[in-house]
């Protein structure tokens, strides 16, 4: 199969065997993959990953290993998306780790992560995942919708972590792909949601989805210019500089949710967290079933966020394009 490998900060096209399957794993032919900011950060050294990146995908099951004939028939040819954390149970580890026993498989101490940690990902013709990680895509849902299930699930995780009924309003700091999805998800549960971002074209996408917007400059002047504060604020700028402004914009005893992942450290003072007695939450992967339900109901439609699709063979060019100012979601079509 054709696949892309991380090499010296770029993607290199290679030809290699399709993944060998463990019992109760599936071989998935990738139909569409999404480029995420995490993929860009991987090329900059995030997690020191050296395999095939890509964790947002929709594909179809091409093979299944170690299951009954009826189970195999159930899965073969089905269109699927997949959870990216591969835990103890999928590898047959006994006993399972403490986090898996507590039901926290996304924090399994032995986990691999599709396209991010020790598990080749979706920038390839095929990938392998355990059946327990797969979710069937409803027939009426397009590939362009289904490829958003993973990042949309990460947005849905916030509503799993906080009680939305406590908040009359919420703000999202950032106007990129994940920030846009977060704002749309919060808008399904909170009356007023405001996105703060630097790019007018991106903010216009949010306004078309019924989300209030405010423009910031993304520099130190914002600390003086932004006057409003919120009891719930989500930092999703993808930049180390976003955290300082996020702390300022969070009310005393408010909740600050951190979504940004990037290579390197964020130099920031911690005293505002102490003085304001803020609740600070890290937030990562989330519930696929809720993301699929939002897409199926069309309460969230991410398709306007797609800027361009590239053939898989042009993945390196697609990554470069994805880093241009103003570009939103870039897809790879196998």
Given helix and strand content, the structural type is alpha/beta
C-alpha-based Rg, rounded: 20 Å
Q: How many E strands?
A: 18
- Uncertain spans, ≥5 residues at pLDDT below 50? none
Percent in helix: 25-40%
**Largest sheet, if any?**
7 strands, mixed
Number of helices: 13
How widely separated are the two ends? 11 Å
Shape: globular
> Hey, roughly how much beta strand do the residues contain?
25-35%
pLDDT average, as an integer?
94
Oligomer: single chain
Structure, described:
This protein is α/β, with parallel strands linked by helices and 334 residues long. The chain is 28% helix and 29% strand. It contains 13 helices and 18 strands. It has helices spanning 37-43, 69-75, 88-91, 98-101, 143-146, 149-161, 177-187, 200-208, 222-225, 242-249, 271-276, 288-297, 315-322; strands at 2-7, 10-15, 25-35, 56-64, 79-82, 85-86, 112-114, 118-119, 126-130, 134-136, 169-173, 192-197, 212-215, 230-235, 250-258, 279-282, 306-311, 329-333. Strand 17 (306-311), helix 13 (315-322) and strand 18 (329-333) form a beta-alpha-beta unit. The relative contact order is 0.16. The mean pLDDT is 94.
